[in-house]
Amino acid sequence: AAKEAGKDTYAVYDAHSETQDGARILLENDLRKSLERRELQLFYQPQVSLFPTRRIGAEALLRWHRGQSEWISPGDFIPLAEETGLILQIGEWVIREACRQGKQWIDAGYEPFIMAVNLSPRQFRQSGLVDLIRSILHETGYPPEYLELEITEGMTLDVESASGKMRQLRDLGVQISIDDFGTGYSSLNYLKRLPISRLKVDRSFVRDIETDLGDRDIVKAIIAMAHNLKITVIAEGVENEDQLAFLEANGCDEIQGYLFGRPVPPDEFERGMTVQGTGGRHS
Ligand code: C2E
Ligand code: MG
Ligand code: MG
Ligand code: MG
Fold first, then answer.
1. What residues does the EAL domain cover (predicted)?
2. How far is it, in rounded angstroms, from Cα 247 to Cα 262?
3. How far, in Å, from the CA of 237 to the mean position of ligand 1?
4. 86-100: per-residue pLDDT in tens?
């Protein structure tokens, strides 16, 4: 693991900001200790189907409570974790914690749902990834078909090796989705060669969907293309009814966004869940 971690770490010297370097080193040191200090936590954001409207999944999103008070969002530490290789340890914790929590909810009698976990590029390239996920599934008893790994378009540029790895993961029974779709370089031809079950339309296309004709066309095209390939489409970042109406009218299958719920800690997420067989909220 140490070898893997050091593989593509670059020492970056930023001449104009000595203090920034200092802050970065402190951040890195604290991040290194975040696991043993139990400062990492997963929040869960609901994913909802539209036809019919039902909660069908959750995305696990990492949060770091640095020290006593500071709260750091993943956008501010995932890149550093990726650069330093710490992402391998952190990412392993994320997958295990999501599966552990998911199993706990199933055992409590809640209807199983898709648990989506983000993989970073380095994690996806990690040679032991398939074995790691196999052993986490075994260890936690989480049903593989309810685990979804989110990867981004950039990780699949080498279609040959990416699709090989994805197939190995699919053989474990897990699902794979493409996150932030539309921001990369994907073509129809390329998607056809990847064993993916869902496309997540990037938030940037949803944001101005009410006014931006270009974004509207892109989203319509993505939905049509995905449906041709029998891939489910979920739109990210849906915040209001007008965005929802457009997506609904154009056949988008699923929605994730503040309109249906923000990422929340597990206890809060649990309050919105349904008990098996009831089809409605248990109270
Ligand atoms: P992402 O995977 O695209 O996750 C969706 C992000 O959009 C989340 O930000 C979520 O809170 C935010 N979001 C959801 N709905 C809305 C909405 O309606 N409006 C707006 N404005 N934002 C919305 P978050 O939690 O800050 O995560 C940011 C990114 O950090 C994630 O983007 C993902 O790339 C990365 N990340 C988060 N957790 C992990 C993790 O465990 N491992 C790895 N490798 N990356 C992670
Ligand atoms: Mg994601
Ligand atoms: Mg995304
Ligand atoms: Mg992302």
1. 24-277
2. 19
3. 9
4. 999 999 999 999 999
Residues 6+ apart with CB under 8 A from 74: 61, 62, 63, 64
pTM equals: 0.91
Q: How far apart are CA 11 and CA 143, in angstroms?
A: 41
DSSP-assigned beta bridge partners for residue 117:
60, 149
Higher pLDDT among residues 29 and 69, named by residue: 29
Of 43, 59, 61, which is best to mutate to test ligand 1, by the most ligand atoms within 8 angstroms of its C-beta?
61
Nearest atom (ligand 1) to Cα of 238: 18
Q: What is the ipTM of this complex?
A: 0.98
User: Which residue has the CA at smallest separation from atom 5 of ligand 1?
Assistant: 236
Helices (H), 157-253: 159-171, 188-192, 203-207, 213-228, 241-249
Mean pLDDT of 108-112: 94
Is residue 215 within 8 Å of 209, Cβ to Cβ?
yes
Enumerate residues lining ligand 1, CB below 6 A.
45, 61-62, 73-75, 78, 91, 94, 118-120, 150, 179-180, 203, 236-239, 256-258, 263
Cβ-Cβ contacts under 8 Å for 94 (sequence gap 6 or more): 40, 42, 60, 62, 117, 118
Distance from Cα 261 to the centre of ligand 1, integer Å: 13
Q: What is the pLDDT of residue 250?
A: 97
Position in ligand 1 atom list of the atom nearest CA 42? 41
Nearest CA to ligand 1 atom 17: 237
